[in-house]
Amino acid sequence: MSVSRYMLYFSPDLINEPITYRMVKDFDLMINILRAEIDDTGGRLIISFEGSPSQIKSALKYLTDNKVQIQELNEYVRKDAEKCTDCGACISICPVSAFVVEKPSWKIVFLSDKCIACGMCMDACPTGAMKQG
Amino acid sequence: MKRTVEEINAKIGKGDAVVMTAEEVVELVKKEGVEKATREVDVVTTGTFGAMCSSGAFLNFGHSDPPIKMQKVWLNDVPAYGGLAAVDAYIGATELGENGKKNYGGAHVIEELVAGKAVKLKATSYGTDCYPRRSIETFVSLKSMNQAYLFNPRNLYQNYAVATNSSDRTLFTYMGKLLPNCKNASYSSAGQLSPLLKDPKLRTIGVGTRIFVGGAQGYVSWEGTQYKTNVPMKNGVPSASARTLAVIGDMKQMSPDYVRGIYMHNYGATLAIGIGVPIPVLDEDVMKNCGMGDDQLFAPVVDYALASRNRKPLQEVSYADLRSGQFMLKGKKCRTSPLSSYHKARQVAEELKRQIAEKEFFLTQMVQSMPEERAMKPLDVHTREEVE
Fold first, then answer.
1. ipTM score for this prediction
2. Measured between beta carbons, which residues in chain A are less than 8 angstroms from residue B184?
3. Looking at the domain A76-133, which fold is it?
4. Which residues of B are catalytic?
5. What is the model's pTM?
6. Which 120-159 residues of chain B touch chain A by CB within 8 A?
7. Does residue B260 sit at the A interface (CB-CB below 8 Å)?
8. B48-B50-B56 Cα angle (round to 5)
9. Residue B177 φ then ψ, to 5°
10. B176 and A89: CB-CB below 8 Å?
């Protein structure tokens, strides 16, 4: 079993499709919706899939075939090590504790596999080190 | 056990001085006690690296031909103050640019200069008989300028509030992003490494004290603005913001590692700077204070949802609790964020220790001590007669 996080973009004509239902029913995935937004340009869903690698692969193919755009979330936000001063302003802002203090160096480490792409760290960083990837 | 600054300098000269960082002496005092630590250690180095808004640089550009009396001055489109002699200017850290980049200010100009980069200078004038030129646009750098020194009216706050937000919306403040319903809190002091917390009454720090400023050897030049002594104390140390220092240092000797322009979202620009102060261990009283750990140092938690100077602290919290990542506030878990880099504060203290051990940095006897008592005055709307 593995867990992967994705951002799914739906065009407006796909909004009425029960995509997440298919993920559970047809591909036997455990899903966790981390964030969902719909506006006049379509929908955006941040979702975590838990299942076997082959189930996840088939689900991703189904999504692509149905014209859902997929972005793996590990690349959504990145930390610019040159700009980061290791202050820690991001630590208490992140809802999933993706920033940790490495002891004993007191350097701030960004665990990108925990990131759910909420973007809350980006305007909390005084040096502008957290950027959309 | 007593020693003088002269004796310590003689030991530094011989390469015999024992220098430890404030963090190291906290451990030493816990293990060996104050008396033994006093005998063993000659100098304690402190350090901090954080946002210090009341900072800025005096610059002298040199004269153009024909000469100009610069009335309005911009550096990378950030206004600098030109109400000085013809080609002198002061650029303040929090001044914002006029080119539409709202996250770029005087602090960023200072960072670029310290990093050796060229910045665009624009100046205008009304023209005089002796200074006929009315405008100039050119590039300047630390290499091209005559003098460039940071002269910061308020740095090194002795302790500072911990900021939280009880309101139901996110606040963007000079203390960073504060989530609703006291979900987080930010703090800015380096605690057990912070210079003025380790010498609470400034017995060893005064006008003329040589310090580490942004990588250069600089000096304490005066009491800082908003310096105050009438504050609550805990364990003999202020448990709220108290003394401050005005400091000076040559930008040409500074390093971009310790001088950074930062931008607090929806608040503004400010300068993050690394400053370290060496504390001569004159006697056991000095060592006792240097040995105070994060568990003995406290700060007030302040609700920034109330934008009033009369807000009362919600409670006190130790730096040990703040540094643990969370503390209990009104019965609920509150996560913490430092705004000053402990990693870099330690780097400052370590670098200062190295410089003293390698005879590059000698201590100074202060020229004048700081005020023993000072209260901070508010600003109210008065008539002329009331304030004369």
1. 0.93
2. 92-93
3. Alpha-Beta Plaits (3.30.70)
4. 130
5. 0.92
6. none
7. yes
8. 110
9. -85, 120
10. yes
Direct distance between the N- and C-terminal alpha carbons of chain A, in angstroms, rounded to an integer: 27
Q: What sections of A18-93 are H helices per DSSP?
A: 19-25, 53-65
Q: A2-73 maps to which CATH number?
A: 3.30.70.260
- Domain range for B46: 5-52+151-369
> In Å, how far is A20's CA from the nearest CA of chain B?
31
**Chain A residue numbers touching B50 (CB-CB < 8 A):** 87
Together in a domain, B34 and B99: no
How do residues A104-129 score in pLDDT, each as one tens digit?
999 999 998 888 888 899 999 999 99
- The answer to whether B91 and B78 have CB atoms below 8 angstroms apart is yes
Q: Cβ–Cβ of B177/A124 closer than 8 Å?
A: yes
When divided into structural domains, chain B yields a total of 2
Q: What is the pLDDT of residues B265-322, one digit of tens each?
A: 999 999 999 999 999 999 999 999 999 999 999 999 999 999 998 899 999 999 999 9
Whole-angstrom CA distances from B112 to A126, B72, B108, B174, B235 are: 16, 21, 6, 22, 42
CB contact under 8 A, B265 and A86: no
Same domain? B99 vs B34: no
Task: Give phi and psi for B112, each to the nearest 5.
Answer: -65, -40
A49-95: pLDDT as tens digits: 889 999 999 999 999 998 899 988 766 789 999 999 999 999 999 99
Q: Nearest-CA distance from B271 to chain A in Å?
A: 10
With beta carbons less than 8 A apart as the criterion, state whether A11 and A63 touch: no
Task: Say if the Cβ atoms of A101 and B325 lie within 8 Å.
Answer: yes
The amino acid at residue B10 is A
Specify whether B89 is located in the same domain as B38.
no
**How far A100 CA sits from the closest chain B CA (Å)?**
9
Nearest to B296 by CA among B220, B231, B372, B234: B234
Start-to-end CA distance of chain B, whole Å, equals 50
Indicate whether B303 belongs to any domain. Answer: yes
The tokens of B45 are what?
């180095």
Query: Residues B263, B172: one domain?
Result: yes
Q: Closest Cα partner for B213 from B353, B348, B51?
A: B348
Task: Bin A48: left if φ > 0, else alpha if -120 < ψ < 50, else beta.
Answer: beta
